[in-house]
Design goal:
Blueprint: H1 2-6, H2 10-13, H3 18-23, H4 46-84
Pfam families: Tcf25
InterPro entries: TCF25/Rqc1 (IPR006994)
């Protein structure tokens, strides 16, 4: 059911009884939303969010370091080529 709605398969969605659409609020991220009084924040594991942010920061630092290494190698290569001429 979730796949049908998220992939916007209108022919399949048209077969779902109208009473279902009247009875349930449907969000684009989930077919059957949480009970009233709760929010998406109740379902988020803050530890996982923290871990993801740390990993993202580490990945960005790794990318920066790799770009610096490549830049240094290019400069060394250009200097070696200039010295050979």
């Amino acid at each position: 059911m979730r796949h049908v709605i998220l992939s916007n398969e209108t022919s399949a969605m048209a077969r779902i009884p109208e009473s279902f659409w009247k009875k349930h609020e449907v969000y684009e991220f989930d077919l059957l939303p949480p009970e009233k009084g709760t929010s998406i924040h109740n379902y988020i594991d803050q530890n996982m969010v923290g871990d993801a942010m740390i990993n993202r920061t580490l990945d960005a630092e790794e990318d920066r370091q790799m770009a610096e290494i490549i830049r240094r190698l290019q400069v060394e290569g250009e200097q070696a080529n200039a010295g050979n001429q």
